[in-house]
């Protein structure tokens, strides 16, 4: 049995930042990071636009209080305000710390870190590295893992979280290269496994974003929080779904419909293209619905709108948002200097996740905690984003709460013993699970079932939702779940068998999707990214509360937890 003081699952920003903090706090601790891809290939590397912090380099009137208010208002008042205060107060420190680690931020002419405008923010506070900010930060953090001697298990897939008597004791993992199984026990387990965009058919997320950590927590009997809040990013490149960063609109790009109108004037006149993402996504979806979308031949009535950069000029496009130009050129053959980009909303971010407190400790119920289990980043829900995340707050959450959780873990494991567990029992159970997948003589390909499931989630739980639609969706996905025992694998070998991973990921997607739909069906109001056409108003008396969803094969049980309000009373959200 492998042993570490701390095992961190996930090699993205939150996991790496936590590992660095633990090693800095107590260099004697044995820390390991497990990642199903190499950490450098974690989805954090795709984050483009920037990281918000009140450095006041561009706008001296900014303050952490203004950043906190923008975040709470953006969240449609569902964010926990104690967590938001910590996030915004810590922001300048963590950005300066990243710079000292060697992150190459874009600069002002006088050498200070540059800051740009971003949707929903009242000041220019988003620090950036051109439009490759996640890439710049993650590379330095991974270098620091090596510097601090953190062990990396890369291309190991975690199959199971071990929880016994209310305590997380370790994990069971599978090596992609040769199918070897290993049990790891640890004094503390941390999940930083990212989001679940692949539950839907069009997403900006990479192929690894399958909600593994969330599904494992749910199967272990732990609740997931606020899963109904799925963020659609307004500008996914049509038809591929790849992200065109909000940085492009921050630098001055326009959204235009088939009539050539900048239609955001009708939806958020004060913020225009820099309205929060939920509002902008619904505006685009409404334009398309009303027949003002655009066809590839340029005629009206099509499935996308245009993002127009042409007025920005070649020099600004190539210096400030080169990666976005490159993506549009490479994937759909559009030269954004000369032509507008076709865009439509794409599933982007999960506001919900594994519920945690501000120390990153996982909640077992609205008022209980799990011993030895921590989470941070997109996989967690400390609820700094509530019902809708503001752009450039996600990298910030990963770094701030990665750091705070790492610090909490380093203190938590002092003077604790390694837990006792029956290694053989878990190895036997997991190897039987894998063998039964290999032996399954089904009639259905993994890809067919996954595609049907993703299409169903997109159709029945999209930008606009109703009770009738979602009830039908739940029936459909339950039918699809019953087909899971009918999948078959072509590859029966142990060596680099990617089909085994795909089959396990599909099970996780199905669990997460069922929880999203169940939680959404029960929230009879519109708030942030969750928009009900049959309940178009926000209902604070009924639903100013967090959803806690518990999974079992028999169905989903729901309970609720109050929102923490410290300084900003809920009010109407207008831009």
Structure explained in plain terms:
The protein has 15 helices and 20 strands. With 575 residues, it is of the alpha/beta class. It folds into 3 domains: 292 residues, FAD/NAD(P)-binding domain (3-Layer(bba) Sandwich); 108 residues, Alpha-Beta Complex (Flavocytochrome C3, Chain A, domain 1), CATH 3.90.700; 118 residues, Up-down Bundle (Methane Monooxygenase Hydroxylase, Chain G, domain 1). A hairpin with a 2-residue loop joins strand 19 and strand 20. The model has no long low-confidence stretch (mean pLDDT 95).
A few lines on this structure:
This protein is of the alpha/beta class. The protein has helices at residues 13-25, 64-74, 81-101, 133-147, 212-219, 246-250, 277-292, 314-320, 322-332, 394-412, 423-439, 446-460, 467-482, 498-522, 540-543; strands at residues 2-9, 31-35, 51-52, 115-116, 126-127, 151-154, 156-164, 167-175, 181-191, 224-225, 230-237, 254-256, 305-308, 341-350, 354-355, 361-365, 368-375, 380-381, 545-552, 555-562. It has 3 domains: 2-229 and 349-412, FAD/NAD(P)-binding domain (3-Layer(bba) Sandwich), CATH 3.50.50.60; 238-345, Flavocytochrome C3, Chain A, domain 1; 423-540, Methane Monooxygenase Hydroxylase, Chain G, domain 1 (Up-down Bundle).
């Amino acid at each position: 049995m492998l042993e570490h003081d701390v095992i961190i699952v996930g090699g993205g920003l939150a996991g790496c930042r936590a590992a660095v903090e633990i090693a800095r706090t107590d260099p004697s601790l044995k820390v390991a990071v497990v990642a199903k891809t190499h950490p450098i290939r974690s989805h954090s590397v795709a984050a483009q636009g920037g990281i918000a912090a009140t450095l006041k380099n561009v706008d001296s009137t900014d303050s952490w209080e203004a950043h906190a208010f923008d975040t709470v208002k953006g969240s449609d008042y569902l964010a926990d305000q104690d967590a938001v205060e910590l996030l915004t107060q810590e922001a300048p420190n963590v950005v300066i710390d990243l710079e000292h680690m060697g992150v190459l931020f874009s600069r002002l002419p006088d050498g200070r870190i540059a800051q740009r405008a971003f949707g929903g923010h009242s000041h220019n506070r988003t620090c950036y590295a051109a439009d490759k900010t996640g890439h710049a930060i993650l590379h330095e953090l991974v270098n620091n893992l090596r510097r601090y001697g953190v062990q990396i298990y890369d291309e190991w897939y975690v199959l199971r979280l071990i929880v016994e008597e209310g305590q997380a004791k370790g994990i069971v993992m599978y090596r992609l290269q040769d199918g070897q199984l290993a049990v790891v026990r640890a004094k503390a387990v941390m999940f930083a496994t990212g989001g679940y965009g692949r539950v839907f058919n069009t997403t900006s997320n990479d192929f690894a974003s399958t909600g593994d950590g969330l599904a494992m927590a749910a199967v272990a009997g732990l609740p997931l929080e606020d899963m109904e809040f799925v963020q659609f990013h307004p500008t996914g490149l049509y038809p591929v779904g790849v992200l065109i960063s909000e940085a492009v609109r921050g630098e001055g790009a326009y959204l235009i419909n088939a009539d050539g109108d900048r239609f955001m004037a009708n939806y958020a006149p004060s913020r225009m293209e820099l309205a929060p993402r939920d509002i902008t996504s619904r505006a685009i979806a409404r334009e398309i619905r009303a027949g003002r979308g655009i066809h590839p031949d340029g005629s009206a009535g099509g499935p996308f709108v245009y993002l127009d950069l042409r007025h920005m000029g070649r020099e600004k496009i190539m210096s400030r948002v080169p990666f976005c130009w490159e993506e549009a050129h490479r994937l759909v053959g559009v030269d954004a200097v000369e032509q507008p980009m076709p865009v439509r909303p794409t599933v982007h971010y999960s506001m919900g996740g594994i519920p945690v407190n501000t120390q990153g400790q996982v909640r077992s119920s609205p008022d209980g905690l799990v011993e030895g289990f921590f989470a941070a980043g997109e996989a967690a829900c400390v609820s700094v984003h509530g019902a809708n995340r503001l752009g450039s707050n996600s990298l910030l959450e990963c770094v701030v709460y990665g750091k705070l959780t790492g610090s909490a873990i380093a203190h938590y494991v002092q003077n604790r013993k390694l837990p006792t567990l029956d290694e053989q029992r878990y190895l036997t159970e997991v190897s039987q699970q894998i063998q039964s997948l290999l032996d399954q003589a089904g009639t259905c390909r993994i890809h067919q079932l996954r595609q049907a499931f993703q299409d169903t989630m997109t159709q029945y739980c999209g930008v606009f939702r109703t009770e009738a639609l979602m009830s039908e969706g739940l029936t459909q996905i339950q039918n699809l779940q019953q087909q899971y025992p009918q999948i078959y694998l072509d590859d029966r070998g142990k060596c680099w068998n990617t089909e085994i991973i795909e089959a396990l990921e599909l099970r996780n997607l199905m669990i997460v999707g069922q929880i999203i739909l169940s939680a959404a069906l029960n929230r009879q109001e519109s708030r942030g990214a969750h928009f009900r056409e049959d309940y178009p108003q926000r209902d604070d008396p009924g639903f100013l509360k967090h959803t806690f969803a518990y999974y079992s094969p028999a169905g989903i049980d729901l309970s609720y937890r109050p929102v923490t309000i410290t300084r900003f009373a809920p009010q109407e959200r207008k831009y």
